[in-house]
Amino acid sequence: MKECMVRLIYCEMLGYESSFGYIHAIKLAQQGNLLEKRVGYLAVSLFLHENHELLLLLVNTVVKDLQSTNLVEVCMALTIVSQIFPREMIPAVLPLIEDKLQHSKEIIRRKAVQALYKFYLIAPNQVQHIHDKFRKALCDRDAGVMAASLHIYLQMIKENPSGYKDLTGSFVTILKQVVGGKLPIDFNYHSVPAPWLQIQLLRILGLLGKDDPRTSELMYDVLDESLRRAEINHNITYAILFECVQTIYTIYPKSELLEKAAKCIGKFVLSPKINLKYLGLKALTYVIQQDPNLALQHQMTIIECLDHPDPIIKRETLELLYRITNGQNVIVIVQKMLDYLKESKEEYAIINLVGKVAELAEKYAPDNEWFIQTMNAVFSVGGDVVHPDIPNNFLRLLAEGFDDGKEDDQLQMYAVQSYLALLEEEDALYPQKFLQVMSWVLGEYSSLVTDVDPEVILTKLHSLLKKTFVTSETKAWIMAAVTKIASRTSCSKTVDKLIQEFSNSLDTCMRQYAFELKHLCEDKALMKNLLPFDASCNDMVVDASLSFLDGFVAEGLGRGAAPYKPHHQRQEEKLSQEKALNFEPYGLSFVSSVSSSGVTGRQSPTGLSFGSDTSGNSAETGHKETNTLKLEGVRKLWGKEGYLPKKENKVGRENEPQTLSCGSLLAGQVGESPALPSDQVASLSEEDKEKQQLASTLFIGLGSNAGVSLMGKVDATTQKFKRKSKINETQSSEEVSDFQISAASDFGPLLDTVPINMEDCEGNTHTRLRKSSLCSSDIVEDNLAFETPQSLKKSGLDERLSDSRLSQSSLFADSNIEIFQPSPSAQCEGAGKTPLVPSLPEELEDLTHSEVLELCQSDALALHLCKVWTDDSLLLTVFVSNKTTSALHAVNLVFEEAEYFQILESPTYQFPVIEAQSVERCQKCVWMDKICTQGILSASVHCQSEMETRLQFSITLSLLDFIRPMEMTTEDFGKLWLSLSNDVKQNIKMSSSQDSLSAALNTLQQKLKLHLVDTIGNEGILACQLLPSVPCLLHCRTHSGMLALWFRSPCSALPDGLLYQCQKVMEES
């Protein structure tokens, strides 16, 4: 069987389908000896994908091998888990893999970390409770385990860099030891110490040091050392240098490092090696926004790269030009991009560049004619592969208009004239999307052109309808245009002819359009009311509930039609009828009994049966299987011109690059701008003169004194097209400081050990959650409005960093390497105490509330906070104390707009006067709009007395601050359970203090503010709600020391958040 499996693997590698052998691969992994088991696991990893149904048969085998005393079996099980293990099966093996982090063998620990990294990528909420163990892996004595943990940290820091600032010193020390060659020689690659480890650490440091002077200061020395030690002439060293340059330009800048990085970029760009030149262009594209003068120093090289034979070099050069585009050079740069598009055959390159050209044309267009002609070229060259947003945005821009109404009409008129001229060309083939744009513009604005008879336009559109290459969708656009034009003409022979032709069409849609046009033409008054001129941006009232169909629905139900069922309910019934597999472990399966409900799928845990445990919001997708030979990714060796690699080698020998040492990259000087004296210019060849002239037009506006308008930066010049507010759109661009970076992106990794400073906390921004009814899952789901986070800008406050340093003990098994331990969380620095002690009023003292905590203070003011948990909101009580001997007037308290939170009243409050040595208070009710585990609400206090005083502070808010018990009966619980579609399941180990269900339920009830609905044997049901009225139901069951949790809610993010809180509470207790 082993030999047969090897041959099956070979067949799959050749592209032939061999699914008949998949089951035998699983049997071989289950029953064979070590060698056969290894081949079986290998075959399974190559044959199956993560959602394959046969993987269920492998779960017990993996669990058994993880518990084996044979190291080889454990390694094979960990390898298969880190490759194709599906997320539904993670709870079955997660406790076993956690235990392997303490294994005595480093290879087991390393593979366990890799498996957890896989789990974090596919189900981050299921491994949030073991983040402390990730830190232990970072401190492991084996360098391989430490290196494996960096993958997890890189991913977590990308999502939440502010939560791991305390580890900056640890990462810096690791990089110093790696660069210093203190790792075992096994980690070296071409005499370069652990290059991939260096690259990972540099990326992590770049994320941690961005816009943070204090954190960046810790990195300067090790970055300088990394640049200095890169002296080996090898590609991997160039990769390290490139990563160093990116990190230096990402973190808070230091002039000395920037100069060295610029020299590196210069040597890369000037190198004859294609790989190094590409790296130089890539780095130059990355840093051009911070240092636009760097492009001036290499402008002639960039010009030469535009004509480089390598398309990758040419494409990267165009990307660089896109970054330096402004109003003065946009015409030349866009023309270069269009020239490349006409030659390119790659779909990806076309889609990418077409989007950039459209963006530049809209932002920097010098006049209407150029804008329309450029967009016509975009639609012609891009074809039907252009992104749908490009034509939509173009039509929206034409419809909404600009600041000047006269210029608005001129643009629309020129668009009509250009499209009429294009349609004059016979036998011209235009892409379908371009024809749709033409049809819409002609239908809306053809009446602006008074010198063209509408009958002529209708004739051209009619001729388009007869073209065979025009699709049904495009014909619908053309018919809509004909209808609009017909509404503005008294009578038309072309319209009558069109109606007669298509009334008998075999195309049902065209026949319907023809009948609609016929009836509208019979009533011109109705036609004009339905199709007013230039009304595309007018607001429309839409009956979203389709109430006009109520009579039709009632009539159908009266005749015995089946009532409507939501999508998730139909899916559950389908899964139940197909006898879907139960993914719940046998020991934790729920009790089945006869159901009294008509729903046959997922049902209430209160004594009702369970047809399927598959989540309602998850879908499995299988691979397409085909009998043809799969040749994707196979290199083409033969073509019409013969053996292709031989011809490439000939070209390579003609352009043989010279070797370049990395030491010279740092030692060389970057040349100044290649502007030449007039006598030297006269001696230049014609080709050089053309390049000089092209450079002068491409790089105009990039001088140090010029008003540069780079992509991604604020444009100092006036933008050509500014949209008028014809539609009711509200856009806000509030400034949010760096310390408001979200502590969790929806549900990012949160560490209890992260130091939190009450003065300089990292924050969250939150959106609006509207009121909804308790039992309507559809309304609750629809009312969750998620908005785009506001742009983050630099704050004047410096984040406080913990003094994380490494100990002097040994890190790895090698005696010459130091061990490090991250320091414990830094405590908040104590500010000076004020004698003014605020207290809650009597009406709030009886409510559940927190202690009065100090937020921040200055010489004049002191701020304190107390949280009060009312039944319908979180009440924040802010106390403002006047420490001076004179009264303070007009003291303003302003809460900044947040993404995840909503202040119910006005976010501002003014104290008219605060007497000397007295305390005033302000109360604000807060709701959570978008679900997050923990976030921060930022605010500031400002007053103007003898001298201006401004204090900024942040308030840490948790999901539990907005959770309230939800009282209901067992019957109501069962009905509501059936109506909810989003669920999450997890098994949690119970501690010795929680050996009974009642103890576990009591812990959850007290710590999470849940209402205990009922206890049935070894099962319990609880309910809560997220303010104002988003329900969440919990079903618990104990078995063999495990607590099985099952959450359900109309909001998909709420069960994940409460599951994380449950894991945290159960571990703490």
Notes on the protein architecture:
It is found in: Endomembrane system. The protein is α+β, with helices and mostly antiparallel strands and 1069 residues long. It is globular and about 90 Å long.
Total of helices: 41
Low-confidence stretches: 586-631, 646-683, 704-718, 722-834
Strand content: 5-15%
Number of strands: 19
What is the molecular shape?
globular
Distance between the termini: 51 Å
> In percent, how helical is the residue content?
40-55%
User: What do the pLDDT scores average to?
Assistant: 75
Structural class: alpha+beta
Rounded Rg: 34 Å
| Largest β-sheet summary | 6 strands, antiparallel
Subunit structure: Adaptor protein complex 4 (AP-4) is a heterotetramer composed of two large adaptins, a medium adaptin and a small adaptin.
Membrane topology: Peripheral membrane protein
Keywords: Golgi apparatus, Membrane, Protein transport, Transport
Pfam families: Adaptin_N, AP4E_app_platf
Keywords:
1069 residues, globular, AP-4 complex subunit epsilon, 41 helices, membrane, transport, 12% strand, AP4_complex_esu, 5-stranded antiparallel β-sheet, 45% helix, alpha+beta
In short:
About 45% of the residues lie in helices and about 10% in strands. The chain has about 1050 residues and is α+β, with helices and mostly antiparallel strands.
Strand and helix layout:
Elements: H1 2-14, H2 22-31, H3 34-47, H4 59-66, H5 71-84, H6 90-100, H7 106-122, H8 131-138, H9 143-159, H10 168-179, E1 188-189, E2 192-193, H11 195-209, H12 213-217, H13 220-229, H14 235-250, H15 255-270, H16 274-287, H17 293-297, H18 299-306, H19 311-323, H20 330-343, H21 347-364, H22 368-382, H23 389-400, H24 405-424, H25 432-445, H26 454-465, H27 472-486, H28 493-502, H29 508-522, H30 524-530, H31 550-558, H32 567-577, E3 638-639, E4 642-643, H33 644-654, H34 662-667, H35 678-682, H36 686-698, H37 777-782, H38 842-845, E5 853-857, E6 861-869, E7 874-882, E8 888-895, E9 901-903, E10 908-914, E11 919-928, E12 934-944, E13 948-958, E14 963-965, H39 970-979, E15 982-989, H40 997-1007, E16 1011-1016, E17 1019-1026, E18 1030-1039, E19 1042-1049, H41 1054-1068
Antiparallel strand pairs: 1-2, 3-4, 5-6, 6-7, 7-11, 8-10, 8-12, 9-11, 12-13, 14-17, 15-19, 16-17, 17-18, 18-19
Helix pairs in contact: 1-3, 2-3, 3-5, 4-5, 4-6, 5-7, 6-7, 7-9, 8-9, 9-11, 10-11, 10-13, 11-14, 13-14, 14-15, 14-16, 15-16, 16-19, 18-36, 19-20, 20-21, 20-22, 21-22, 22-24, 24-25, 25-27, 26-27, 26-28, 27-29, 28-29
Organism: Bubo bubo
Main location: membrane
Region (Disordered): 601-624, 668-687
